[in-house]
Design goal:
Elements: E1 3-4, H1 9-18, H2 30-34, E2 39-44, E3 50-55, E4 63-68, E5 74-79, E6 85-93, E7 96-102, E8 115-120, E9 126-130, H3 145-148, E10 157-162, E11 169-177, E12 183-192, E13 198-201, E14 209-214, E15 220-227, E16 230-237, E17 242-250, E18 258-262, E19 268-273, E20 283-288, E21 296-301, E22 311-313, E23 320-326, E24 330-334, H4 337-349, E25 354-358, E26 367-373, E27 380-385, E28 390-396, E29 409-415, E30 421-427, E31 436-442, H5 457-464, E32 468-472, H6 482-486, H7 495-509, E33 513-523, H8 525-536, E34 543-547, H9 566-576, H10 584-589, E35 603-608, H11 616-628, E36 634-639, H12 649-666
Length: about 675
């Protein structure tokens, strides 16, 4: 069966459902938009009696709580780690679970990795499995794995998969290092969470493995290796009990099929480019026959969108039940008839949201969780009971958010000047009439899909303050096919920048944006684009605000200014951005720090002092270049305990308060209330 998904179908239904007369929303506190979710990451226990959920309470770290479904839904806190936030949770058995800890919503107390802890529910005992403290003097040569057996694993270890085979084991992997500090490969092992013993998976393993793919029973069925700029996709051959090279090529040049899951009978699901249709530049899901007959079958394709999601398998048989995906919005393509009917029944009860079923044994579990979201509704978790088809509300992630007060987010495609079909999300202030002051909000990356049809705090905050929010998926963004992505190669400050201008001018031409009151903004790459927008196109952008922004293309190749590795700097960046020697003049021409004298519009810049991705030296270099050019329009902020983006609510409260005042001064957009 092949699903060809028509993009926009699900959102059309929701848009119709949500349509109503819009009146201006009241001015809401910044905290409404920037506070972390009160509840997140809910997971149903294997025996369906409890729900584990992450809880954020004001002034506290993120903790782990359990809700007992058979005791009137009572909820109690069960785990908290000093100066750490609980990041996620995974059940091992009905009475034991593991959870990661790290820094997420508080000012950083110390630099840590993501540690792993174990909770025994009946006793309440909590113990660490993987340490979160960075070793300040790591032994980069040789292996220390033998010494790590039977004790807490150091931070170089991480979880590959929590198993579903009746054991309490998990699959873990360890970073191995070269003398240069670069990652050499990943060692795979099975960890017994009760005893702490490791069983290494080292037999006939390909060299240079950088990604492992493991089934629910802990068997590695595929891996991806690196050899310099070359990659190899290897499949495990059961007949010969050995690894076979399946596909190989060069990174960022050759097609790279990615394993998704191993199915019943040994067939493999992969994400690869579709060779069977006119949409041959998009990633689809294909079923690869591993029998002697060979061959492949395309299972799902979405014109204009690369597939990205998860496979849902029957735990007993390994049969493929469904595939999650994201087109204009998120959805699930069910291959199982009964689950398709169940999805339709739940969607009928919850017609205003996109509803994802969260289940282990989806065909047979009498209870399952439903995650419900929309552009105006932050995530809500419901409990669905098959016995009476009832839905019970469990947790609202953002209880302070009222959907009626939130702005609608519209998914569009607009033409760029060269005919490129550019995706774009538009967030319109409630009650807005006529051309509005606008913010072109540029996503970071830039090689990511930046926008999703969900409730998004930054866009909603700006819309609540009366601004039209324009979020273009400029060329170079991923998720929209290889052509869209590849058109962004070596186009920083050039065609990628043209797309942002074209998005602003499109909004003006449609009567949505006031041409005299458009600001540009973003973080990381979006910060770079903000600076270049003010330098290149001051006739379009009246002001700009950026945080954690790249200020010079030379900095991308400096180990002191970014955390990018040697291989990425020596091979990938010359392909994607430009070569530091051969293209030196081109890089300088499109580096804000080298073009600072051209910047005349008002600018707000903010950096985290502990940022390693875009080191604060990049911000200081731009600040000094602007001062040397006698520029007077800069507002400058440094947050001492923040990194690449803001963790703490107090930081977000301060920063977005500054943004609000900055915009009011320069494009005056607040809707009268």
């Amino acid at each position: 069966m092949r699903f060809t998904i028509r993009a926009g179908a699900a959102l059309a239904v929701l848009t119709t459902t949500l349509a109503h007369a819009q009146t201006p929303a009241p001015k809401l506190p910044i905290d409404t938009f920037m506070q972390p979710p009160m509840f997140s990451g809910a997971q149903l226990s294997p025996d369906l009696s409890k729900v584990a959920v992450l809880v954020n309470r004001p002034g506290e770290r993120t903790q782990l709580a359990l809700t007992d479904l058979d005791e009137a839904g009572s909820t109690r806190m069960v785990a908290a780690v000093s100066k750490r936030d609980v990041l996620d949770v995974h059940w091992l058995t009905p009475t034991r679970l593991v959870f990661h800890v790290g820094q997420s919503n508080q000012l950083r107390d110390e630099p840590i990795s993501n540690g792993l802890w174990l909770l025994d529910v009946p006793s309440g005992d909590v113990k660490p499995l993987i340490d979160d403290q960075f070793n300040q003097n790591p032994e980069r040569l040789g292996s220390r794995i033998k010494a790590e057996i039977d004790r807490i694993l150091p931070w170089e270890w991480s979880v590959v998969r929590v198993l579903d085979d009746g054991s309490e084991d998990i699959m873990v992997q360890k970073l191995q290092w070269l003398a240069t500090g670069e990652v050499s490969h990943l060692v795979l092992a099975r960890l017994n969470t009760r005893t702490g013993k490791l069983k290494l998976e080292t037999e006939n393993v390909p060299a240079g493995v950088r990604s492992w793919y493991v089934d629910r029973k802990g068997k590695a069925y595929a891996c991806i290796s690196y050899d310099g700029p070359n990659f190899g996709v290897h499949l495990f051959d059961e007949a010969s009990n050995s690894w076979k090279l399946w596909r190989s090529g060069r990174r960022n040049i050759d097609e790279w099929p990615v394993p998704i899951a191993r199915l019943a009978g040994g067939d493999l699901l992969v994400s690869a480019y579709d060779g069977d249709s006119k949409h041959d530049d998009i990633r689809v899901v294909r079923r690869l026959k591993t029998t002697d007959s060979g061959g492949a079958e395309t299972l799902i394709s979405i014109p204009g969108y690369d597939w990205k999601g998860e496979a849902i398998l029957d735990p007993g048989t390994g049969r493929l039940l469904g595939l999650t995906y994201e087109a204009d919005g998120a959805d699930t393509a069910w291959f199982d008839r009964d689950l398709k009917v169940l999805q339709a029944s739940i969607d009928k009860q919850l017609p205003s949201t996109v509803n994802r079923l969260l289940c282990r044994d989806c065909r047979n579990d009498r209870r399952l969780l439903v995650s419900a979201t929309s552009d105006r509704q932050p995530e809500i978790f419901y409990l669905y009971d098959r016995s009476d088809s009832s839905l019970k509300l469990l947790f609202r992630s953002q209880p302070a958010v009222k959907p009626a007060e939130m702005a609608p987010r519209e998914v569009l495609r607009i033409p760029a000047r060269d005919g490129l079909d550019m995706p774009l999300q538009l967030t319109k202030p409630l009650g807005a009439a006529g051309p509005r002051p606008a913010v072109v909000l540029v996503h970071g990356g830039p090689w990511v899909r930046g926008n999703h049809w969900v409730w998004e705090g930054q866009a909603q905050f700006l819309a609540n303050r009366g601004y039209l929010v324009i979020e273009p998926e400029f060329r170079g963004s991923t998720g929209y096919g290889a052509r869209h992505e590849n058109k962004g190669r070596r186009q920083w400050g050039q065609a990628m920048q043209d797309d942002l201008v074209d998005a602003a001018r499109w909004a003006v031409a449609k009567g949505l944006a006031d041409p005299k009151r458009i600001c540009i903004a973003g973080a990381s790459y979006g910060g770079y684009a903000t600076l270049m927008g003010l330098i290149r196109d001051p006739d379009v952008f009246a002001c700009g605000f950026q945080w954690a922004g790249v200020t010079g293309l030379d900095f991308l190749f400096s180990r002191s200014a970014t955390d990018m590795g040697d291989l990425y700097q020596s091979y990938d960046l010359p392909l994607l951005v430009g070569a530091p020697v051969k293209d030196a003049q081109k890089l300088a021409d499109h580096s804000p720090v080298k073009q600072a004298a051209r910047l005349k519009r008002p600018l707000l810049m903010a950096y985290g002092a502990e940022d390693t991705r875009v080191a604060i030296k990049q911000g200081f270099a731009m600040k000094e270049a602007l001062a040397a050019a006698s520029y007077q329009g800069l507002e400058w902020i440094v947050y001492p305990n923040e990194g690449h983006g803001w963790r703490a609510l107090e930081t977000n409260r301060d920063f977005w308060g500054r943004v609000e005042r900055f915009l009011e001064r320069h494009i005056g957009g607040a809707t009268p209330r």
